[in-house]
């Protein structure tokens, strides 16, 4: 004998019912089969919704009813296209009974738990009827048995307790006489010893099947559903989740108790002592292995954590007060008061000081719990021995489950570190004495992020997902997107980094996809994106609430730089080539650094100095390893280098600057480069990163420009003054030539002071032969006192800047 249970989706359409029938047909070739069915997917919810509307005097319950009736009729018609008068009349009559019950609820304006059970039982009765009649109609040896005649319970409506003795006797005696190869049983529904209709609790069809399997001591119980087994975590929330091949009964119970909806928690109980294995199988993919729940397997899974589950809608209640300390009986009174109200406690922790007890229940029970507890402790509350109970809602429980967790140390540490790194606040923690479960309470909005981060930590150990939001796709930004597109495969395969561009924006439009944009035709896609706003982009990045989120600023926009703090406060890392934030006031710079530390969100700006050259990273590494910077000498302007490498007595200064601008080596306003402001900002950033508190005003800027150049009030005007002052520039060149020197614009940081200015560099000096748009930085430190550490290479250009940003993005993943 086989017992198979098919859930709501499995019987949710004619197409799926046909799949069910073919599975049953197959099984029944060799063996008798008992098939427990759920209501058609979604019908139980719809029945409850219609009843709720009716009791509230909302006539739209009729519309809900009609949708229910239509669904059943259309499925039947699809299953038996030729029609069958008797079957369809019977269905219509049944539906008419349902309609009368709803009308009654509407009239009396009331829905008791007893009526509710009577009403929802229509769901299973109807689906069992349709399936059984279809099978009979197709000539299969099939019978339908009403489980209300087998399952006996008490009168706890909506979640009745099974009276096993009577139930087992009924099941055994019925099946000892039944002769049909296939029996269809509606799940979930039952009858009390007083003859009232009851149900076994939402999701209870699994339980019906387990009770039948245990009563008949069959060899195995099969739960057929819409996923290929019990997954490592909820597959609807974590795409990378995968089915667990083997689970012990205890692990399955813990996972289902803590929210893995695929198995109704009480299901394990009846089969556990009889060692009947439970197989979870997928109706839509019958060949998938699925999950086997039993106690007879060798667990050689890679991690002691077998699964992670979650329960939403949790309210956390805290009872505290000095009057509780050392006085026995408090917990007893507390939990008795909840038991009397039939409130299920999901989670308990008590500090060893006994000063407070904290427990989690379903939010819907929280007000009832509060009044019950306030009533029981009325006296103590009035004497201020304990405080009135505190309720927090909008919470969820996340639980790690695994039999082998108890013999492994450091799992909770890993769990808390992973949550902490993602800025997920833990409101409460509990670990059962069995150590099979560690559960934490967190805010509901963080659940998806927490599950993904924990799943990555425990099951995809070597994989890391980075979720990138890029703003500014001009010259550099475009190269960055292209580089990411090109490297994604390599990163995934070689570095186990799954880099997803989730958001992309220019000044006009923005596009998003939390699974990662395909980037195939991103430019066209961006053109048709939604209207971009700086705050809109921030809000979306916050709302996605993805782990390892990184905001990348590829603009030179001051307003964007003002939002870095807001990103960091939401644990979104910031990677910027925009120099404004780090070179504005020291206070602002320090604040961002502090936010980065506080919220565990890297703030990286390597490309602020020397484009793709690893200048800041090297400096940080020197300092982190205990070195001290004594001096920095550098040529940091690709544009000024280009200008002075090309300017001589055969050229004109004006023409060379024009050419530099044309070739994209200067800012749109070349005065920013030529005045030395850009270089000053860079050395300022290096000075700050070396640990010096400094502002731009503190810096010496020995400009080589003439007063007329500096006072020009437009770019055109500036170019005119360059022509007028050609003699001045030729003089600078002539002097350098006479001294056998090269002109270089040098930034220096010494003894806590920084300055920038044009210098004549003699032969033999490392700066002398600096070519093209190259940059060079020399670090003199305690460990490099005489021979400096030198970093040299292209310090400008879209490709190298993009690759510098790319390196920062990858670095955030290593932090
Ligand atoms: P049925 O109607 O077949 O009883 P349920 O909806 O009750 O199906 O349970 C299956 C659903 O459980 C899946 O579709 C999935 O969304 C959800 N689920 C939650 N956690 C898990 C998990 N750890 N493994 C598998 N499914 C899970
Ligand atoms: N139909 C019921 C429910 O939706 C029972 C079940 O499907 O297991 O809760
Ligand atoms: Mg279910």
TrEMBL record:
Q: Which reaction does it catalyse?
A: L-aspartate + ATP = 4-phospho-L-aspartate + ADP; L-homoserine + NAD(+) = L-aspartate 4-semialdehyde + NADH + H(+); L-homoserine + NADP(+) = L-aspartate 4-semialdehyde + NADPH + H(+)
Q: What is its EC number?
A: 1.1.1.3, 2.7.2.4
Q: Does the keyword Cell cycle apply?
A: no
Extract the coiled-coil ranges from the record.
none
Task: List each copy of the ACT domain by range.
Answer: 400-473
Q: Which UniProt keywords apply?
A: Amino-acid biosynthesis, ATP-binding, Kinase, Lysine biosynthesis, Metal-binding, Methionine biosynthesis, Multifunctional enzyme, NAD, NADP, Nucleotide-binding, Oxidoreductase, Sodium, Threonine biosynthesis, Transferase
**Cofactor(s) this protein cannot do without:** a metal cation
Q: What is the protein's quaternary organization?
A: Homotetramer.
Return the NCBIfam families for the record.
Answer: asp_kinases, PRK09436.1
Name this polypeptide is given: Bifunctional aspartate kinase/homoserine dehydrogenase I
């Amino acid at each position: 004998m086989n017992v198979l249970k098919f859930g709501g989706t499995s019987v949710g359409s004619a197409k799926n019912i046909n799949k069910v029938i073919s599975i049953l047909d197959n099984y029944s070739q060799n063996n008798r089969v008992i098939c427990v069915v759920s209501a058609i997917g979604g019908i139980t919810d719809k029945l409850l919704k219609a009843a709720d509307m009716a009791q509230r005097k909302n006539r739209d319950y009729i519309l809900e009813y009609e949708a229910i009736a239509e669904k059943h009729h259309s499925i039947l018609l699809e299953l038996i296209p030729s029609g069958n008068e008797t079957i369809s009349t019977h269905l219509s009559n049944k539906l008419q009974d349902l309609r009368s019950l709803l009308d009654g609820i509407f009239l009396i304006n009331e829905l008791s738990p007893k009526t509710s059970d009577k009403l929802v039982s229509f769901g299973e009765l109807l689906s069992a009827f349709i399936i059984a009649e279809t099978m009979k109609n197709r000539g299969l040896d099939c019978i339908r048995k009403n489980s209300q005649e087998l399952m006996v319970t008490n009168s706890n409506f909506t979640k009745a307790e099974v009276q096993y003795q009577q139930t087992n006797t009924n099941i055994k005696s019925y099946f000892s006489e039944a002769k049909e190869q296939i029996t269809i049983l509606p799940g979930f529904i039952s009858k009390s010893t007083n003859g009232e209709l009851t149900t076994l609790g939402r999701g209870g069809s699994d339980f019906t099947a387990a009770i039948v399997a245990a009563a008949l001591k069959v060899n195995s119980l099969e739960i057929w559903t819409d996923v290929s087994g019990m997954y490592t975590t909820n597959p609807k929330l974590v795409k990378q989740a995968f089915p667990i091949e083997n689970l012990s009964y205890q692990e399955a119970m813990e996972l289902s108790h803590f929210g893995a909806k695929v198995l109704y928690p009480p299901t394990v109980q009846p089969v556990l002592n009889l060692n009947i294995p439970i197989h979870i199988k997928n109706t839509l993919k019958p060949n998938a292995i699925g999950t086997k729940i039993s106690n007879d397997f060798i667990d050689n899974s890679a991690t002691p954590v077998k699964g992670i589950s979650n329960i939403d809608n949790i309210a956390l209640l805290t009872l505290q007060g000095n009057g509780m300390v050392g006085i026995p009986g408090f917990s007893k009174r507390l939990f008795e008061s909840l038991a009397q109200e039939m409130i299920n406690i999901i989670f308990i922790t008590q500090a060893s000081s006994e000063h407070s007890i904290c427990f989690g229940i379903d939010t819907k029970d929280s007000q009832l719990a509060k009044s019950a507890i306030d009533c029981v402790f009325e006296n103590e509350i009035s004497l201020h021995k304990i405080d009135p109970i505190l309720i927090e809602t909008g919470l969820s429980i996340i639980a790690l489950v695994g039999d082998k967790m108890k013999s492994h140390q450091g799992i909770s540490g890993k769990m808390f570190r992973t949550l902490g790194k993602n800025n997920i606040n833990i409101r409460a923690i509990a670990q059962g004495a069995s150590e099979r479960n560690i559960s934490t309470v967190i805010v509901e909005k963080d659940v998806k992020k927490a599950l993904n981060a924990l799943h990555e930590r425990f099951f995809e150990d070597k994989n890391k997902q980075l979720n990138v939001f890029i703003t500014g796709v001009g010259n550099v930004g475009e190269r960055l997107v292209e580089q990411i597109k090109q490297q994604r495969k390599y990163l995934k395969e070689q570095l186990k980094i799954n880099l997803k561009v989730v958001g992309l924006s220019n000044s006009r439009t923005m596009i998003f996809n939390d699974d990662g944009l395909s980037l195939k035709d991103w430019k066209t896609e961006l053109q048709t994106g939604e209207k971009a706003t700086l705050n809109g982009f921030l809000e979306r990045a916050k709302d996605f609430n993805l782990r390892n989120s990184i905001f990348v600023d590829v603009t030179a926009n001051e307003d964007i730089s003002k939002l870095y703090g807001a990103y960091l406060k939401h644990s979104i890392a910031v990677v910027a080539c925009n120099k404004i934030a780090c070179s504005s006031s020291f206070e602002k710079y320090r604040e961002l650094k502090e936010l980065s530390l506080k919220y565990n969100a890297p703030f990286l700006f390597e490309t602020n100095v020397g484009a793709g050259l690893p200048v800041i990273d090297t400096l940080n590494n020197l300092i982190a390893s205990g070195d001290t910077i004594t001096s920095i000498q550098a040529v940091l302007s690709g544009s000024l280098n280009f200008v002075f490498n090309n300017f001589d007595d055969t050229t004109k200064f004006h023409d060379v600057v024009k050419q530099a601008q044309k070739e994209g080596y200067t800012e749109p306003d070349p005065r920013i480069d030529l005045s030395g402001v850009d270089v000053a900002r860079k050395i300022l950033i290096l000075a700050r990163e070396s640990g010096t508190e400094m502002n731009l005003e503190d810096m010496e800027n020995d400009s080589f420009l003439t007063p007329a150049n500096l006072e020009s009030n437009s770019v055109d005007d500036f170019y005119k003054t360059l022509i007028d002052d050609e003699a001045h520039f030729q003089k600078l060149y002539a002097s350098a030539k006479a001294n056998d020197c090269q002109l270089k614009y040098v930034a220096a940081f010494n003894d806590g002071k920084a300055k920038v200015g044009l210098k004549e560099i003699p032969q033999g000096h490392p700066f002398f032969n600096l070519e093209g748009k190259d940059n060079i930085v020399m670090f003199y430190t305690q460990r490099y006192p005489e021979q400096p550490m030198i970093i040299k290479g292209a310090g400008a250009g879209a490709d190298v800047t993009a690759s510098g940003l790319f390196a920062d993005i990858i670095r955030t993943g290593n932090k």
